[in-house]
Protein backbone atom coordinates (compact mmCIF):
# COMPACT_ATOMS: atom_id res chain seq x y z
CA UNK A 1 0.00 0.00 0.00
CA UNK A 2 2.85 2.42 0.78
CA UNK A 3 4.38 1.70 -2.63
CA UNK A 4 1.02 2.29 -4.32
CA UNK A 5 0.64 5.61 -2.51
CA UNK A 6 4.17 6.63 -3.52
CA UNK A 7 3.44 5.89 -7.19
CA UNK A 8 0.28 8.03 -7.08
CA UNK A 9 2.15 10.98 -5.55
CA UNK A 10 4.83 10.72 -8.28
CA UNK A 11 2.08 10.72 -10.93
CA UNK A 12 0.46 13.80 -9.36
CA UNK A 13 3.78 15.66 -9.43
CA UNK A 14 4.22 14.84 -13.12
CA UNK A 15 0.70 16.10 -13.93
CA UNK A 16 1.31 19.35 -12.04
CA UNK A 17 4.60 19.81 -13.89
CA UNK A 18 2.87 19.32 -17.27
CA UNK A 19 0.11 21.78 -16.32
CA UNK A 20 2.65 24.44 -15.37
CA UNK A 21 4.62 23.93 -18.61
CA UNK A 22 1.44 24.30 -20.70
CA UNK A 23 0.46 27.60 -18.98
CA UNK A 24 -2.54 26.15 -17.17
CA UNK A 25 -4.02 28.22 -14.29
CA UNK A 26 -1.93 28.21 -11.10
CA UNK A 27 -2.44 25.15 -8.88
CA UNK A 28 -2.06 25.29 -5.13
CA UNK A 29 0.19 22.25 -4.59
CA UNK A 30 -0.29 22.17 -0.81
CA UNK A 31 -4.06 22.25 -1.13
CA UNK A 32 -3.95 19.61 -3.87
CA UNK A 33 -1.87 17.18 -1.78
CA UNK A 34 -3.87 17.85 1.41
CA UNK A 35 -7.08 17.02 -0.44
CA UNK A 36 -5.63 13.80 -1.81
CA UNK A 37 -4.13 12.68 1.50
CA UNK A 38 -7.34 13.41 3.42
CA UNK A 39 -9.35 11.30 0.95
CA UNK A 40 -6.69 8.59 1.09
CA UNK A 41 -6.73 8.43 4.91
CA UNK A 42 -10.54 8.21 5.03
CA UNK A 43 -10.48 5.15 2.81
CA UNK A 44 -7.94 3.34 4.97
CA UNK A 45 -9.35 0.70 7.29
CA UNK A 46 -9.25 1.36 11.01
CA UNK A 47 -6.69 -0.79 12.81
CA UNK A 48 -7.94 -3.28 15.41
CA UNK A 49 -6.27 -5.13 18.28
CA UNK A 50 -6.54 -8.40 16.35
CA UNK A 51 -4.84 -6.88 13.28
CA UNK A 52 -1.93 -5.73 15.46
CA UNK A 53 -1.70 -9.20 17.01
CA UNK A 54 -1.71 -10.91 13.60
CA UNK A 55 1.01 -8.56 12.36
CA UNK A 56 3.23 -9.43 15.33
CA UNK A 57 2.53 -13.17 15.00
CA UNK A 58 3.42 -13.14 11.30
CA UNK A 59 6.81 -11.67 12.17
CA UNK A 60 7.29 -14.41 14.76
CA UNK A 61 6.28 -17.19 12.36
CA UNK A 62 8.38 -15.70 9.55
CA UNK A 63 11.42 -16.19 11.78
CA UNK A 64 10.41 -19.81 12.46
CA UNK A 65 9.88 -20.48 8.74
CA UNK A 66 13.59 -19.99 8.19
CA UNK A 67 13.99 -23.41 9.81
CA UNK A 68 10.55 -25.02 9.43
CA UNK A 69 8.15 -24.11 6.59
CA UNK A 70 4.54 -23.49 7.71
CA UNK A 71 1.56 -23.42 5.33
CA UNK A 72 -0.39 -20.17 5.22
CA UNK A 73 -3.67 -21.86 6.25
CA UNK A 74 -1.97 -23.56 9.18
CA UNK A 75 -0.38 -20.28 10.20
CA UNK A 76 -3.77 -18.50 10.11
CA UNK A 77 -5.35 -21.25 12.21
CA UNK A 78 -2.54 -21.13 14.77
CA UNK A 79 -2.79 -17.34 15.07
CA UNK A 80 -6.60 -17.48 15.41
CA UNK A 81 -6.44 -20.09 18.18
CA UNK A 82 -3.70 -18.19 19.95
CA UNK A 83 -5.79 -14.99 19.91
CA UNK A 84 -8.84 -16.80 21.32
CA UNK A 85 -6.78 -18.11 24.23
CA UNK A 86 -5.02 -14.80 24.85
CA UNK A 87 -5.81 -13.25 28.30
CA UNK A 88 -7.80 -9.99 28.28
CA UNK A 89 -4.91 -8.08 29.80
CA UNK A 90 -2.72 -9.12 26.83
CA UNK A 91 -5.45 -8.12 24.35
CA UNK A 92 -5.59 -4.67 25.96
CA UNK A 93 -1.93 -4.20 24.99
CA UNK A 94 -2.79 -4.72 21.31
CA UNK A 95 -5.83 -2.44 21.62
CA UNK A 96 -3.48 0.28 22.86
CA UNK A 97 -1.14 -0.30 19.89
CA UNK A 98 -4.08 -0.17 17.46
CA UNK A 99 -5.38 3.09 18.97
CA UNK A 100 -1.96 4.68 18.64
CA UNK A 101 -1.73 3.60 15.00
CA UNK A 102 -5.17 5.00 14.24
CA UNK A 103 -4.31 8.30 15.91
CA UNK A 104 -1.09 8.55 13.91
CA UNK A 105 -2.76 7.83 10.58
CA UNK A 106 -5.71 10.10 11.20
CA UNK A 107 -5.24 13.85 11.38
CA UNK A 108 -6.50 14.49 14.92
CA UNK A 109 -6.13 18.24 14.45
CA UNK A 110 -8.49 18.19 11.49
CA UNK A 111 -11.38 20.61 11.95
CA UNK A 112 -13.82 17.92 10.81
CA UNK A 113 -13.00 15.44 13.61
CA UNK A 114 -15.33 14.83 16.56
CA UNK A 115 -14.07 16.45 19.79
CA UNK A 116 -15.55 13.81 22.12
CA UNK A 117 -13.11 12.24 24.60
CA UNK A 118 -13.97 9.20 26.71
CA UNK A 119 -13.32 10.28 30.32
CA UNK A 120 -12.73 6.71 31.53
CA UNK A 121 -9.84 5.80 29.22
CA UNK A 122 -9.05 9.20 27.61
CA UNK A 123 -9.70 7.77 24.13
CA UNK A 124 -10.56 10.21 21.34
CA UNK A 125 -13.27 9.75 18.74
CA UNK A 126 -12.03 9.79 15.14
CA UNK A 127 -15.39 10.14 13.38
CA UNK A 128 -16.39 13.12 11.25
CA UNK A 129 -18.35 15.99 12.81
CA UNK A 130 -22.17 15.80 12.54
CA UNK A 131 -23.10 18.89 14.56
CA UNK A 132 -21.01 22.01 13.93
CA UNK A 133 -22.19 23.84 17.05
CA UNK A 134 -20.72 21.34 19.52
CA UNK A 135 -18.30 19.59 17.10
CA UNK A 136 -19.57 16.06 17.83
CA UNK A 137 -20.18 13.12 15.51
CA UNK A 138 -23.76 11.85 15.17
CA UNK A 139 -23.40 9.20 17.90
CA UNK A 140 -21.80 11.46 20.49
CA UNK A 141 -24.09 14.38 19.64
CA UNK A 142 -27.08 12.19 20.58
CA UNK A 143 -25.34 11.15 23.82
CA UNK A 144 -24.56 14.80 24.58
CA UNK A 145 -28.21 15.85 24.06
CA UNK A 146 -29.49 13.05 26.32
CA UNK A 147 -27.02 13.99 29.06
CA UNK A 148 -27.84 17.71 28.71
CA UNK A 149 -31.61 17.04 28.92
CA UNK A 150 -31.14 14.78 31.96
CA UNK A 151 -29.05 17.37 33.83
CA UNK A 152 -31.56 20.14 33.10
CA UNK A 153 -34.49 18.03 34.30
CA UNK A 154 -32.55 16.91 37.38
CA UNK A 155 -31.71 20.53 38.22
CA UNK A 156 -35.37 21.55 37.98
CA UNK A 157 -36.33 18.58 40.16
CA UNK A 158 -33.73 19.44 42.83
CA UNK A 159 -34.88 23.08 42.91
CA UNK A 160 -38.48 21.94 43.36
CA UNK A 161 -37.47 19.58 46.19
CA UNK A 162 -35.65 22.42 47.97
CA UNK A 163 -38.67 24.71 47.60
CA UNK A 164 -41.09 22.04 48.87
CA UNK A 165 -38.84 21.30 51.84
CA UNK A 166 -38.73 25.01 52.63
CA UNK A 167 -42.53 25.30 52.59
CA UNK A 168 -42.91 22.28 54.87
CA UNK A 169 -40.20 23.11 57.41
CA UNK A 170 -39.96 25.34 60.45
CA UNK A 171 -38.27 28.65 59.66
CA UNK A 172 -36.05 30.71 61.95
CA UNK A 173 -35.42 34.43 61.46
CA UNK A 174 -31.81 35.61 61.43
CA UNK A 175 -30.59 39.21 61.40
CA UNK A 176 -27.60 39.48 59.07
CA UNK A 177 -26.02 42.73 57.83
CA UNK A 178 -29.13 44.69 58.88
CA UNK A 179 -31.31 42.36 56.79
CA UNK A 180 -33.66 39.60 57.86
CA UNK A 181 -32.94 36.19 56.40
CA UNK A 182 -34.44 32.82 57.23
CA UNK A 183 -33.05 29.35 57.90
CA UNK A 184 -34.93 26.05 57.82
CA UNK A 185 -34.38 22.70 59.52
CA UNK A 186 -31.95 21.74 56.73
CA UNK A 187 -29.73 24.76 57.56
CA UNK A 188 -30.50 26.38 54.20
CA UNK A 189 -30.79 30.18 54.06
CA UNK A 190 -33.59 32.05 52.28
CA UNK A 191 -34.73 35.57 51.53
CA UNK A 192 -38.30 36.71 50.87
CA UNK A 193 -39.34 39.22 48.23
CA UNK A 194 -42.27 41.61 48.46
CA UNK A 195 -44.68 38.85 47.39
CA UNK A 196 -43.25 36.50 50.06
CA UNK A 197 -41.60 34.29 47.43
CA UNK A 198 -38.62 32.46 48.90
CA UNK A 199 -35.19 32.23 47.27
CA UNK A 200 -32.46 29.93 48.56
CA UNK A 201 -29.29 32.04 48.83
CA UNK A 202 -26.97 29.91 50.95
CA UNK A 203 -26.58 27.54 53.87
CA UNK A 204 -25.29 27.38 57.44
CA UNK A 205 -22.16 25.33 58.06
CA UNK A 206 -21.77 24.99 61.84
CA UNK A 207 -21.89 28.69 62.82
CA UNK A 208 -20.85 30.08 59.44
CA UNK A 209 -23.26 31.59 56.92
CA UNK A 210 -22.23 30.69 53.38
CA UNK A 211 -23.88 32.71 50.61
CA UNK A 212 -23.92 30.98 47.24
CA UNK A 213 -23.86 34.12 45.13
CA UNK A 214 -20.69 35.74 46.53
CA UNK A 215 -19.02 32.57 47.92
CA UNK A 216 -17.99 34.29 51.16
CA UNK A 217 -18.36 33.17 54.78
CA UNK A 218 -19.81 35.29 57.57
CA UNK A 219 -19.83 34.35 61.26
CA UNK A 220 -23.35 34.17 62.65
CA UNK A 221 -23.69 35.36 66.25
CA UNK A 222 -26.83 33.45 67.16
TrEMBL record:
HMG box domain segment(s): 43-95
Q: Which InterPro entries match?
A: HMG_box_dom (IPR009071), HMG_box_dom_sf (IPR036910)
Q: What SUPFAM superfamilies does the record point to?
A: HMG-box (SSF47095)
Protein's recorded name: HMG box domain-containing protein
Name the source organism.
marine metagenome
Provide the organism lineage as a comma list. Answer: unclassified sequences, metagenomes, ecological metagenomes
